[in-house]
Automatic annotation (TrEMBL), chain A:
InterPro entries: 4Fe4S_Fe-S-bd, 4Fe4S_Fe_S_CS, Aldolase_TIM, Dihydroorotate_DH_cat. It holds the Pfam family DHO_dh. It is an enzyme of class 1 (oxidoreductase). It comes from Psychromarinibacter sediminicola. It catalyses: 5,6-dihydrouracil + NAD(+) = uracil + NADH + H(+); 5,6-dihydrothymine + NAD(+) = thymine + NADH + H(+). GO terms for cellular component: cytoplasm. Involved in pyrimidine base degradation. Catalyzes physiologically the reduction of uracil to 5,6-dihydrouracil (DHU) by using NADH as a specific cosubstrate. It also catalyzes the reverse reaction and the reduction of thymine to 5,6-dihydrothymine (DHT). The gene is preA. Keywords: Iron, Iron-sulfur, Metal-binding, Oxidoreductase. Its EC number is 1.3.1.1. GO terms for molecular function: dihydropyrimidine dehydrogenase (NAD+) activity; iron-sulfur cluster binding; metal ion binding. The keyword Nucleotide-binding does not apply. Belongs to the dihydropyrimidine dehydrogenase family. This is dihydrouracil dehydrogenase (NAD(+)).
UniProtKB/TrEMBL annotation, chain B:
It comes from Psychromarinibacter sediminicola. Residues 23-131 form the Dihydroprymidine dehydrogenase domain. This is NAD(P)-dependent oxidoreductase. Gene3D superfamilies: Alpha-helical ferredoxin, FAD/NAD(P)-binding domain. Residues 144-431 form the FAD/NAD(P)-binding domain. One of its GO terms (molecular function) is iron-sulfur cluster binding. It comes from the Bacteria. InterPro entries: DPD_II (IPR028261), FAD/NAD-bd_sf (IPR036188), FAD/NAD-binding_dom (IPR023753), Helical_ferredxn (IPR009051).
Length: 434, 445
């Protein structure tokens, strides 16, 4: 069994699976259960300033979308930061950390953008002995209306400023949690780095309305006939998170900045994908909220098996796919593929045909007996047929070997790499460097 | 009463009432909304879907399933009823395993088809439970059409004609409408008086007058109907039953399976329905299976279904055969009755094994006897009382096109017409198509 022990910016945990700052980590009772189930670490639910705690709504705070068998695909929430007294949280954090010295505990913090406010809470967090802090610059609902959460995360200057304060007043790792509700994730990441952050974590939740009640015409979740946007998470957001993680991992300005990957991690495979795109560990919330803490056991066994099968150590996986993330303009235009339908696997549903005929390139022929065949002279290799086919591996993309004729273009496939930057149709084309 | 499965002879009350209720409950209980959503999600929404082609009424199955999946079973029902106004009954009695579900790509791929029949029932039940009828009559045409037979073909024809604005009178020999839906299908396939409820629902279209207890050739004649009406549709089914042609056939307790099934369907109290201890059913079709299974469910100790050819020739679907086997019916192939033995009432039936020879089925030279207190014939029905002057083909009314008979202004469909495969759903298709043809003819006049 592969060694999954993780060292993320100096914070050690027996595995790279942490629970994200969220309801599952709101108090000692839950966190103890999480550690007993096997979680490597937790980011404690976000702490606010001393004083009267925040209040939450007293109606539904979550909304969801589902597949047909009520498989939860996406979850949103309008819950605020912890609504328990600061001192109670701090005492519990200290106690749990003392009892579980091998597990990681990180304090998530959200206080107003005032230096004193940060200094005061940092001193108290430091006393608990937890392993680090995460700055909640991400929550898009409620707190953002009060100038915190994503309201900070959307202004790189604020991120840099607050991060700098934290590095000044706190001597353990500082992780900056980023909001995806911005145009370019690299800017806040760069700001965090410039402020001295040890790492960034992303993504926080995405502005969302999960549904509209078509009888009462209210957004969901609905509170007394009204609804407010919430933060979206769960399996549905993973592709967005993966892309944002990869952008930070590959940008020269932020490359090498440690990343804690968050966003729809539901299985070991999701986690492995985040790691391959540059995340040093992952944080999980919705999967635990959907299935309970035990899911971590599948994540541990699955990632171990994968690493064993690949003969890789955990560190070998981190960032392994980053060099392969590039810009569109550098994609090889001489890479020519054609769809291939395995007639033995084909169940003759005709979805590929409908998709191609109605919405794509009319490159699939429907022959007597419901035999579906690719027309190489029309197929642009768009992959839609692969995506809509209900049978895994029934339709695949096969590369035309260089030297063969592409019947669609009438040209022989070239073996050389050639991209848009040198393409004759590109007005700005330049000769490829030899 | 103290009767049990082991009481000799033909007696009632072999099983306690609660066991009978259980036995004759819904064979396939309805899907609840969540089950329907999950079942609907399995549909791939195939292009030019094979299931539609396999459906004799060409229901747009992928569309109605998608309408269920998106929470609009009412729209789904309308998609069904547009093609098949008896979609509720067909959802219950269609041998889906040899029609839509047999060709479902998921059946072919995984051996587990989308549950089209049950989904259809979910949609149609939703609308019928609300007692809403989604169709309205067109403006009255002043034309009058007679429909003979209130079975699936006649009802489908009448509804479509009424919808087009014609006035329809249905004549039926039996006291209740529905035809085989009411009298000829196993009870556990259509519980809670569904056949009558469906007729009542269908009649909401208006413009249809039902005259029950009026058989063609007795209360009415084709000549009179042709005189009185602008068109006539014949859908009276097959009233005759084929004989065994075995010695002693007239012995007591040898009966037609269709009569047994009809009695059972009309019985108010199943515990008063007598059944033999040893029952022998002769035949290889759905009627034979229905009679055999229901004999068993009534409490017969031993039920044997004997078919003269091999298993592969049985017209009962494989599913039905398995259902019978699972209920404890013993199925014997390649044996034909030669003698019914008994003094007054049947005691035994002698069979001879058969084999397939160069000239068809031939005796194999070996006989055996089965004990029998009751024997049901289920070796096919035939047309009885065909109107004089109408051309027949293979013993049924010859038709061309959409059910046109040799007599001008007279159409036919359902079991009494040649062609088709004696299924409820085929009868519905034929009735519907004849109605369209009649309408086109009347509109052109």
């Amino acid at each position: 069994m592969a060694d999954l022990s993780s060292d993320f910016v100096g914070i050690k945990s027996p595995n790279p699976f942490w629970l994200a700052s969220a309801p599952p980590t709101d108090k000692e009772y839950n966190v103890r259960r999480a550690f007993e189930a096997g979680w490597g670490g937790v980011v404690w639910k976000t702490l606010g300033s001393e004083g009267p705690p925040v209040v939450n709504v007293n109606g539904p705070r979550y909304g969801a979308i589902w597949g047909a068998d009520r498989r939860l695909l996406g979850l949103n929430n309008i819950e605020l930061i912890t609504d328990r007294p600061l001192q109670a949280n701090l005492e519990e954090m200290a106690r749990v950390k003392a009892n579980y010295p091998d597990r990681a505990i990180v304090a998530s913090i959200m206080v107003p953008c005032e230096e004193d406010a940060w200094r005061e809470i940092l001193e108290r967090v430091a006393e608990t002995g937890v392993d680090g802090i995460e700055l909640n610059f991400g929550c898009p609902h409620g707190m953002s209306e009060r100038g915190m959460g994503s309201a900070v995360g959307q202004v790189p200057e604020y991120i840099e400023m607050v991060t700098r304060w934290c590095k000044t007043y706190y001597d353990k790792p500082v992780i900056v949690k980023l909001t995806p509700n911005i145009t370019d994730i690299r800017k806040p990441a760069k700001a965090a780095k410039d402020g001295g952050a040890d790492a960034v974590s992303l993504i926080n939740t995405i502005n969302s309305i999960t549904a509209v009640d078509l009888d009462d015409f209210c957004p969901e979740p609905t509170i007394d006939g009204k609804g407010s946007h919430g933060g979206y998470c769960g399996p549905a957001v993973k592709p967005i998170a993966l892309s944002m993680v990869s952008e930070i991992a590959r940008d020269p300005e932020t490359h090498g900045l440690p990343i804690s990957g968050i966003g729809g991690v539901t299985t070991w495979r999701d986690a492995a994908e985040f790691l391959a795109l540059g995340a040093g560990n992952v944080q999980v919330c919705t999967a635990a909220m959907t299935y309970g803490f035990k899911v971590v056991q599948e994540m541990i066994s699955g990632l171990s098996q994968y690493l064993d099968e690949k003969g890789m150590a955990l560190d070998d996986l981190v960032g392994r796919a980053v060099p392969n993330v590039t810009d569109w303009q550098y994609l090889n235009l001489n890479y020519v593929t054609k769809a291939r339908i395995d007639q033995d696997l084909c169940i003759k549903c005709g979805r590929c045909y409908a998709a191609c005929e109605d919405t794509s390139h009319q490159a699939i022929a429907m022959k007597p007996g419901r035999v579906f065949e690719v027309k190489d002279d029309e197929c642009v290799a768009c992959n839609l047929c692969v995506n809509v086919c209900p049978v895994e591996d029934c339709i695949t993309m096969e590369r035309l070997t260089p030297g063969t004729l592409d019947e669609r273009t009438g040209r022989v496939v070239e073996s050389d790499y050639a991209n848009w930057t040198t393409h004759p149709n590109n007005p700005a084309a330049k000769e490829a460097a030899e | 009463m103290g009767n049990t499965q082991f009481t000799p002879g033909v007696v009632a009350g072999r099983l306690p009432g609660d066991v009978l209720d259980d036995n004759f409950g819904d064979l396939h209980p309805p899907l609840d909304p969540h089950e329907a959503a999950v079942a609907a999600d399995r549909c791939y929404f195939c292009y030019d879907a094979p299931c539609v082609e396999a459906c004799p009424t060409s229901i747009d199955i992928p569309l109605f399933i998608r309408q269920i999946a998106t929470g609009t079973p009412e729209a789904a029902a309308e998609t069904i009823f547009d093609q098949n106004i008896l979609g509720g009954m067909c959802a219950r009695v269609c041998p889906t395993e040899t029609l839509c579900e047999e060709v479902c790509v998921r059946e072919v791929a995984e051996g587990k088809p989308v549950e089209i029949g049950r989904l259809q029932r979910y949609a149609t039940d939703t609308v019928m439970a609300k007692n809403s009828h989604p169709y309205e009559r067109a403006a009255a045409t002043g034309k009058r059409v007679a429909v003979v037979g209130a079975g699936p073909a006649g009802l489908a024809c009448a509804h479509r004609l009424a919808m087009k604005g014609h006035d329809v009178v249905i004549y039926d020999a039996r006291p209740k409408p529905g035809g085989l839906n009411e009298y000829g299908i196993a009870s556990y396939k259509t519980v809670d008086g569904f056949a009558q409820k469906e007729v009542d629902w269908l009649m909401q279209i208006g413009g249809i007058e039902l005259r029950a207890g009026q058989a063609l050739g007795e209360a009415v004649t084709l000549e009179a109907l042709r005189e009185d009406c602008d068109a006539v549709f014949l859908g009276m089914g097959l009233a005759g039953v084929n004989a065994l042609r075995a010695e002693g056939e007239e012995t007591g307790n040898v009966a037609d399976a269709v009569d047994f099934i009809a009695d059972l369907r009309q019985a108010g109290d199943l515990s008063k329905l007598a059944i033999g201890r040893n029952v022998v059913v002769i035949g290889g079709g759905m009627t034979a299976i229905d009679a055999a299974v229901q004999s068993k469910l009534l409490g017969a100790e031993a039920v044997t279904l004997v078919y003269r050819r091999g298993q592969e020739r049985m017209s009962a679907s494989e599913y039905e055969q398995e259902l019978a086997a699972s209920q404890g019916v013993r199925i014997v192939h390649h044996a034909m009755p030669v003698r019914v033995i008994g003094n007054g009432a049947v005691r035994e039936v002698e069979f001879e094994y058969t084999q397939d020879g160069p000239n068809g089925l031939e005796p194999a030279g070996e006989t055996f006897r089965l004990p029998a207190d009751q024997v049901f014939r289920a070796i096919g029905q035939r047309l009885e009382g065909a109107p004089d002057g109408i051309t027949l083909e293979g013993g049924k009314i010859a038709v061309s096109g959409a059910g046109r008979t040799s007599v001008a202004g007279v159409w036919a469909g359902g079991d009494c017409a040649a062609g088709g495969d004696d299924l409820t759903v085929t009868a519905v298709a034929e009735g519907r198509d004849a109605a369209e043809d009649i309408h086109a003819r009347l509109a052109a006049e």
